């Protein structure tokens, strides 16, 4: 038992007191308060019902709403002009944008407000607009009858009682302006950048050099 | 070995009466060590998803008997009820005979409104945070089909633009799926009706399938999927839209809980322009069959030889 023994014992005690104990306490505190380094995930936000509710492309944008009242109040006094292009003051919302088909009475019956123009003097009921559309767009209507054109809902297995829901021409297309002007669009994904294919906004963007090059090569 | 060495090594010296470590310091050290161990392991206590014992011994989906399935579904339903407070029913519709599903998407019609993306999220109980979506709508310049320069994150105001066309890409349900070939545990496979499915309870989350898929159609749950309870779709399929776990792969299943009952998938029903067509490719009267026979259709990345059942067309 010499000085050496005492010194070494003293050293060990110092080691425990001054390094290991405080070190452990610090480590425990670190684990307790700094350990939770997970990236904050925002709380889930409910989706906007507009983004997933089924509807046709015509949707609510029924610009050319049918005027209420009796059409014959005006149309019986006026002599119909078969070359009318612009609708009269009573139809302010109607803007005819149907390509070369720019005459009201191409589609509407000249003398009968409640009918569409069929072949010759024939009349087509408003409930079956496809008969009118078929006069020009025969192939499309053929596809529509086969189920390959237009929106269908319900089910693919017809014999199971789930009849497919078909939509007529005017339920999706505005007849006065048949091109889709569907306004409801859902937002871009909020994914991390590395999993997202980013937009290259312009051709001057150096990143889009490949795009311009290939386009110029091809055309 | 000298005495000094022995002391340094902490060995007991015969001459030394006092222990190297006194009882007091030994106890203090042990207490410190055990507290430190407990604290460092404590995150396991509030781990987000700890599988139960039944989860651990659950067999592969294909080896389950009907009774076992019933038990498992009841267990999962109870868990969903506990977590979301919504009573659900987990079904397991089987593939029909003589049915093989195919999809046709008319790119001439798609306006890029992304409603299919969100209808899919709603139907399939996909995680809202972090966001998971099966469908990516790629915006491309007209005149070229160049996936390299397409953009996926265009803002909604850039939808239905005249200068671009929009190509929704989701799982192509390949006839030769590369994703199932690479799975080391066979947790993903192709069903008889051509739908590639994942058993979320069997997946080990290695993400090989994500790397193997040429269409980037598979999504991995890095975090626990979160969705509001009021948006939970209670009509669930075991292989399709039941809530997923953290650390598993998920993918489009053509809404098999709907389509195997004869209904249309959610993305098709919601499409406002009717660009999407779905049906049984083996039925000569089905819509998809008619389009494939009559129109010019193409598949994405034909050269990789996956033989997708998802066709694109530019039909009028």
Features:
heterodimer; A: 219 residues; mainly alpha; 7 helices; B: 316 residues; Alpha-Beta Plaits; four-stranded mixed β-sheet; 15% strand; elongated
Short overview:
Chain A is mainly alpha-helical and 219 residues long. Chain A has helices at 3-34, 72-75, 104-107, 129-133, 138-146, 169-172, 209-218, and strands at residues 115-117, 123-125, 152-153, 165-166.
Describe this protein's structure.
The complex is a heterodimer of chains A (219) and B (316). By secondary structure, chain A is mainly α. Chain A has a domain at 48-188. Helix content of chain A is 31%, strand content 5%. Chain A is built from seven helices and four strands; from the N terminus they run H-H-H-E-E-H-H-E-E-H-H. Chain A has helices at 3-34, 72-75, 104-107, 129-133, 138-146, 169-172, 209-218, and strands spanning 115-117, 123-125, 152-153, 165-166. In chain A, strands 1-2 form a two-stranded antiparallel sheet. A two-stranded antiparallel ribbon of chain A has the order 3-4. In chain A, strand 1 (115-117) and strand 2 form a beta hairpin. Chain A is rod-shaped. The N and C termini of chain A lie far apart (98 Å). With 316 residues, chain B is α+β, with helices and mostly antiparallel strands. Chain B folds into two domains: 3-44, no CATH class; 101-313, Alpha-Beta Plaits (2-Layer Sandwich), CATH 3.30.70.20. Helix content of chain B is 27%, strand content 15%. Chain B contains ten helices and twelve strands. In chain B, strands 10-2-12-11 form a four-stranded mixed beta sheet. In chain B, strands 1-8 form a two-stranded parallel sheet. In chain B, a hairpin with a 5-residue loop joins strand 5 and strand 6 (196-198). The longest helix of chain B has 19 residues, at 23-41. Chains A and B meet through helix 1, helix 5, strand 3 and helix 7 of A and helix 2, helix 5, strand 3, helix 9 and strand 10 of B.
């Amino acid at each position: 038992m010499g000085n050496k023994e005492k010194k070494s014992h003293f050293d060990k005690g110092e080691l425990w007191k001054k390094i290991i104990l405080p070190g452990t306490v610090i480590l425990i505190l670190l684990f307790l308060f700094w350990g939770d380094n997970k990236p904050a995930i925002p709380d889930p936000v409910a989706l906007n019902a507009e983004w997933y509710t089924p509807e046709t492309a015509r949707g609510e944008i029924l610009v050319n709403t049918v005027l209420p009242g009796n059409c014959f109040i005006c149309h019986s006094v006026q002599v119909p002009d078969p070359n009318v292009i612009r609708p009269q003051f009573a139809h302010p919302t109607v803007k005819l944008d149907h390509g070369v088909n720019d005459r009201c009475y191409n589609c509407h019956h000249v003398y009968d407000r409640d009918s569409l123009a069929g072949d010759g003097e024939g009349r087509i009921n408003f409930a079956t607009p496809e008969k009118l559309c078929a006069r020009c767009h025969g192939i499309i209507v053929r596809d529509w009858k086969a189920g390959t054109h237009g929106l269908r809902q319900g089910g693919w297995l017809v014999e199971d009682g789930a009849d497919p829901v078909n939509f007529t021409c005017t339920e999706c297309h505005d007849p006065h302006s048949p091109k889709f002007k569907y306004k409801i669009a859902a937002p871009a994904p909020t994914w991390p950048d590395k999993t997202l294919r980013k937009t290259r906004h312009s051709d001057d963007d150096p990143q889009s050099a490949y795009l311009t090059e290939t386009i110029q090569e091809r055309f | 070995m000298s005495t000094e060495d022995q002391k340094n090594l902490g060995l007991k010296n015969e001459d030394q009466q006092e222990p190297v470590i006194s009882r007091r310091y030994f106890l203090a050290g042990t207490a410190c060590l055990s507290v430190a161990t407990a604290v460092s392991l404590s995150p396991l206590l509030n781990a987000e998803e700890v599988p139960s014992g039944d989860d651990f011994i659950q067999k592969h989906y294909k080896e389950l008997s009907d009774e076992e399935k019933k038990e498992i579904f009841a267990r999962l339903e109870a868990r969903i009820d506990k977590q979301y407070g919504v009573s659900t029913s987990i079904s397991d519709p089987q593939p029909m005979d003589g049915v093989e599903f195919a999809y046709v998407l008319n790119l001439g019609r798609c306006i890029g409104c992304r409603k299919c993306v969100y209808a899919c999220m709603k139907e399939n109980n996909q995680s809202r945070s972090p966001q998971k979506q099966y469908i990516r709508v790629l915006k491309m310049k007209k005149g070229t089909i160049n996936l390299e320069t397409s953009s996926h994150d265009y803002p909604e105001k850039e939808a239905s633009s005249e200068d671009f066309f929009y190509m929704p890409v989701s799982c192509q349900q390949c006839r030769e799926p590369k994703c199932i070939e690479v799975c080391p545990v066979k947790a993903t496979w192709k069903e008889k009706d051509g739908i590639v499915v994942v058993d979320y309870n069997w997946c080990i989350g290695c993400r090989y399938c994500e790397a193997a898929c040429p269409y980037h159609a598979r999504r991995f749950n890095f975090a626990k999927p979160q969705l509001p309870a009021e948006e939970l779709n209670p009509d669930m399929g075991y292989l399709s839209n039941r809530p997923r776990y953290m650390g598993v792969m998920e993918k489009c299943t053509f809404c098999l809980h709907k389509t195997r009952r004869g209904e249309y998938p959610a993305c098709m029903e919601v499409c406002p322009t009717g660009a999407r067509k779905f049906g049984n490719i083996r039925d000569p009267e089905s819509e998809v069959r008619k389009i494939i026979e009559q129109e010019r259709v193409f598949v994405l990345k034909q050269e990789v030889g996956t033989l997708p059942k998802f066709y694109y067309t530019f039909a009028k």
